[in-house]
Amino acid sequence: PHRTRRDAQPGAAPTMNCRAEVLEVSVEGRQVEEAMLAVLHTVLLHRSTGKFHYKKEGTYSIGTVGTQDVDCDFIDFAYVRVSSEELDRALRKAVGEFKDALRSSGSDGMGQISLEFYQKKKSRWPFSDECIPWELWTIKVNVVNLANEQERQICREKVGEKLCEKIINIVEVMNRHEYLPKMPTQSEVDNVFDTSLKDVQPYLYKISYQITDSLGTSVTTTMRRLIKDTLAL
Amino acid sequence: AMDTDLSSQDRKDLDKFIKFFALKTVQVIVQARLGEKICTRSSSSPTGSDWFNLAIKDIPEVTHEAKKALAGQLPAVGRSMCVEISLKTSEGDSMELEIWCLEMNEKCDKEIKVSYTVYNRLSLLLKSLLAITRVTPAYRLSRKQGHEYVILYRIYFGEVQLSGLGEGFQTVRVGTVGTPVGTITLSCAYRINLAFMSTRQFERTPPIMGIIIDHFVDRPYPSSSPMHPCNYRAGEDNGAVYPSVEDSQEVCTTSFSTSPPSQCVFTVTKAHFQTPPPVVTDTLKVPVMGLAFSHQLSSSRLSYQPAALGVGSADVGYPVLFAGGLNAAHPHQLIGPGKEGGVPPIPSQPAHGTQADQERMCTPLDGVHYSAATPSSSEDTETVSNSSEGKCGSPHDLLETIFIRKVGAFVNKPINQVTMANLDIPFAMFAPKNVELEDNDPMVNPPDSPETESPLQGSLHSEGSSGSSTGNTHDDFVMIDFKPAFSKDDILPMDLGTFYREFQNPPQLSSLSIDIGAQSMAEDLDSLPEKLAVHEKNVKEFDAFVETLQ
């Protein structure tokens, strides 16, 4: 089961309307990366378009998004991702850091990784640009240690089944057709989309994670950035 | 009254979208059941033929089947397009696994913009379909097809028939898109009591072509196309003539506008491509370890035509999955013909080669017929020698009996093989030397599990745990857990976080506001003559001032 939190005022301005989805998985240590990639790629598949090409009179055309199947090695599972090596690399890097942080945090093995979609709102000097989130996906991870090979085999299948459920959940949310940023003009496109990739164009996103140490307190590794954002003037 | 709300151009566009959406839906579903990994490339420049901005290949046979089933109609209330996925064992028994339904209901969304919002939402729905087709049980089954069973598809149009799915089937909704003429819904009903047919059972006899599949999976992408056949070549002796694909292909060129959507320019043009001659569309050449085979997707002309050894083709195709090896001694001989000839419902016949098992694979039902998603092995009676114990009650029993048969040379871990000296196995020299019975392999038959509780049970099987919230106890509109550094949570009403949130968005100064920029430019322009007049009057003072500066 996943939980959705909704805005109390459905018609509110975008600044106040960020939907949040929480997914939870329990996996073995070696399954963390693949499970996270599966979820993140599935979300980004739905939140990426082809590259925009602006023409005159404010019209634009959209490039083509290719897709490919990915088989997991440690989970009985396969998922579809956008065909973009750059995007895959970016996600792998973030997930790799998350996995390392989980491993080095101690034996508890609990943490969460978040994928946030945001819009940039340019402010005039002396205010810095704001990042206004409009959708937040949080994956809570619980790492288990298994005793023997038979359990690992069961775990492969069980986690595969769980991930199938997660994909269905994600698709459900996507199908609600709730708030999406308005299609931007050429001058605004970088405030809505990440145009740095050469073959696809995801909505602006950022990935952050938290590890819960054994004391139950969360240590946010994006703390530095948060401070910067909070106090930036 | 409904039609007057929708302009005729919008109506035409909408019908076109729905038509191509239906065709692409079928492609995605069938391709997801072929048993191989799909891969298409992203392209930053729009090519004009990628509907919904997604790179989804069109297998001509599949398009043909879909168009035939639709017969020029579109999904409407009571007229749904269904893609039925079923499994057929080498014994000939079949079982429906899934029904994918593209339906239309009466709920209209008059306000929605056709050429903009509907199009984008259809694109999103196709992405969801790509994702969902990998998570139903039939996906894993289809990836392991080839030697004991194949996966077939059938397209029909009309009323949805779910009775073949057995009791307790489950439904997953892929998504919906509202349009001015109704709401499109896409869902899948799938059989669940194949849980006993867990993929582990099939792993005991690994596919004979396991090696081949890996060969293709690891193949680096050629410059023009990754894993899919980009051209189709006819088999050398194949005289089959496929009903010709249309010479022109409808191309979707889209331009979107960021100003009010009503200004969206959407053009659909008919472009004439140079299509290969019709005969091209019905065979795929697959280089397989130096041998080239051609197979046809449509079961009406199922034949295996191995070319001479050593002749390879440059084309990459779908890995050919079939049971049993080839008769290497007679490279041009076709493999075990089906017993029943029968008159195929489709007029064209292969000039040479055997008929597929027409009775079993093609059961015309109101003009509808089966097509194989991959070549069927059911005709390979030579190698499926031990498996017939008559038809058993449940497919489960059938599959059990299949395990006793012989397997060919390129199997990873052959089981139950009497002796490697059985030279009636083709390519016996390629067979692995060490025969290790899988029954003794602990990886396949794990030892009995200990009684002790493992952490696995606690964490994985707990359905009810929904976890704690992220810490934000307020249920008002700020959803993100915003924890400013050095602030305390418990002082009300004005902690640093609240302060920051409230004063985070001061109203913009109008002169700095970009939105008003456009407006005030007009005003600025209007007021220019006045300003110029004023400056003209004081021109002497300005000149004097400039002098002092120099």
From TrEMBL, chain A:
Q: Name one Pfam family in it.
A: ATG101
**Gene Ontology cellular-component annotations:** Atg1/ULK1 kinase complex; phagophore assembly site
Keywords of this entry? Autophagy
Does the keyword section mention Cell wall biogenesis/degradation? Answer: no
| Gene Ontology BP term (one) | autophagosome assembly
UniProt family annotation: Belongs to the ATG101 family.
Name of the protein this chain belongs to = Autophagy-related protein 101
- Its source organism is Rhynochetos jubatus (kagu)
The gene name reads: Atg101
UniProtKB/TrEMBL annotation, chain B:
Q: Where in the cell is it found?
A: Cytoplasm, Cytosol; Preautophagosomal structure
Spans annotated as Disordered: 333-392, 438-472
First-listed, main subcellular location of the protein, grouped into a coarse class: cytoplasm
Signal peptide positions (record): none
Q: GO CC annotations?
A: Atg1/ULK1 kinase complex; cytosol; phagophore assembly site
Gene that specifies this protein? Atg13
Which source organism? Answer: Rhynochetos jubatus
Q: Report if keyword Cell cycle is assigned.
A: no
UniProt record, GO biological process: mitophagy; piecemeal microautophagy of the nucleus; protein localization to phagophore assembly site; regulation of autophagy; regulation of cell population proliferation
Q: Where is the composition biased (Low complexity)?
A: 458-471
Superkingdom per UniProt: Eukaryota
**Autophagy-related protein 13 N-terminal domain: from which residue to which, for each copy?**
96-196
Please state what the protein is called. Answer: Autophagy-related protein 13
Cite the record's Polar residues compositional bias ranges. Answer: 373-389
The organism's taxonomy opens as:
Eukaryota, Metazoa, Chordata, Craniata, Vertebrata
